[in-house]
Amino acid sequence: MRVTSKPTTLPESDLKEVTLQVPLYQREYSWDLEQISDLYYDIYNSTEESPHYLGSILVFDTGTVQEIIDGQQRITTIFLILNCIKKILIENIHIDDERIRHSITIIENYIYKRRSNKASNIDTSTEPRLITSKRDKVLFKAIMQGTESNLLGSTKEKKIKSHKLLLNANEAITKKIASLFTTEGVNGLTIFLDKVIGCLFIVMTAEKKEDEVLLFKTLNSRGIELSESDLVKNEICNNVKVNNNKEYDDAKIQEAVDIWDDMRTKLEKNKVNIDYFIFYYINSRDYSQQLRKEINSKFTTEKQNKDELFYPAIPEKLIFTAYESLIRGTQNTLELLEGLNKSADKYIEIYAPDEFLDKETKKENKSYTFLRSIRDMNITKCYPLLLRGSETLSTKNFDKLTKYVECLSFRHYILKRDPKELEKFYYELTAKLKTDLDIETILDAIKQHSSIKDEDRYMNEFILCAPKSSISKMILTRLVNKQEGLPHNHNDVHMDHIMPQKPTGTTAFAKLKKDNSENYENLNNRLGNLTLIKKKINISLSNKDFHEKKIGYKETRLKINDPLLNLDSWEFNNIEERQKALYELAKDIWVL
């Protein structure tokens, strides 16, 4: 790997003449006007003594082009700025012929592919030296050549978000450059041009594949780590095969990119992290254990027994290696992608039921309440099992599985048992779940788990628990559902601390905290001190005294608050008594 010894400028760097290309796995142009404006004024306000620092530019030298691993948004925007300066200069060339022509030549030598050194054969190529992402490259090339208006009649061009952003960027930069020329003339514009090409950056160049992987793990100048999914997408695009034959034509690669982007878009729309999905997906597959053994024999020095099983089969550190092996070993890349895409639909249903299901469907979906509770508890390692179940089981049996998994996960949490132990248990079940006929074996294994059978300890822990707020609200909502027969809905109520977290003034709660602050703090987040109340009421009463809070509890009209209305005050002992009463209400919910 080569790294420039110090910050360099475009005229001084190795990038001044090479072809730069945004790889297929990189996303399209995504900068909005605020980011563009920030860059423009950062450059404008810089000086010769203190140039603007662009950060690090990470590239992979393929031998023919330099692939931009990190920095494509900055570089694309710099090219747009240079091109807009060129346009304004061309429009005003009559003002200062020689000076403007010289500046135009400097810009064109940077933004176009020009190689000729012969005076008798001047290279006038307008082929951009930057090849942007596959979706953007036609429009970007047109912008750099001044022919973008020819594309604007296309409906497709207008629908793609990155195209809108590119056009908006070009328009905004053109206005800024035109305004600069109007106020400061040729002199001001050429000074600004010097500042643009004088921006400093560090170039890190990978020359080996392993260096590229290393660079992927490097934080870019804005502190964002590039993802495993980008690596996987790149591997897919570089290994497109149909019927075991590699297909390098653009149509097949574009089809692969389109399937991937469709999957990514719907995951993001439903607030699902794509990196987590590809991790859970591969660990939900029948072949995950065999794949791990193949990886160990090829790529690692990890020793294993012949029949040894791994949980998870594919750990996070081996995700890219696993997908690399899977992709290169598949006979049909597009079929693999389609399978991944279909599983993404199932995963969204499991992980993001609120985003996926409408209100009426939630009432009819028996697994919704359990899936929402699993999400609230942030119990993530059960997702390979649930994903396998959603693709393997009938609806009836999948509903049973979600109920059992949610019950075990909740009790395990209340019992404060090792999450790693439960993680391994869920992976073991995933490996055993192959057909709908396996459901009784899976459910029986969950029933026999110690966290299900240890009722006495579970009761003791429940009446002392002070869960995280999201879990406390989930518990209270489930209790309300049981009493009221209402759908599971977190959005129309707030959770209220009966004994406020920060009592104010001369309230009885303020005195209670002053008299025994340690006990006050210890009991404040206990489940027995929490209840549900309408949002607007909670905002106005959150730090009030108990007799005022009771007014809000009455207006909320939930049965869970009825016992509170019969009390004259709220003391420490009331919290413990109420938590015991909540256990009696809850004990029939989390039971198998």
How does this model look, in words?
The chain has four domains: 2-216, no CATH class; 228-349, no CATH class; 357-453, no CATH class; 469-586, no CATH class. 58% of the residues lie in helices and 7% in strands. The protein has helices at residues 33-44, 72-91, 97-111, 137-145, 155-159, 161-197, 209-216, 228-238, 250-269, 274-283, 288-299, 319-329, 333-351, 353-356, 359-364, 368-377, 383-392, 395-414, 419-432, 439-447, 450-453, 455-462, 469-484, 508-515, 517-524, 535-541, 546-556, 562-565, 572-586; strands at residues 2-3, 20-21, 53-61, 66-70, 130-131, 200-206, 241-242, 245-246, 493-497, 530-534. The strands form three sheets. The protein has a six-stranded mixed beta sheet. Strands 7-8 form a two-stranded antiparallel sheet. Strands 9-10 form a two-stranded antiparallel ribbon. A hairpin with a 4-residue loop joins β3 and β4. Residues 217-226 have low confidence and may be disordered.
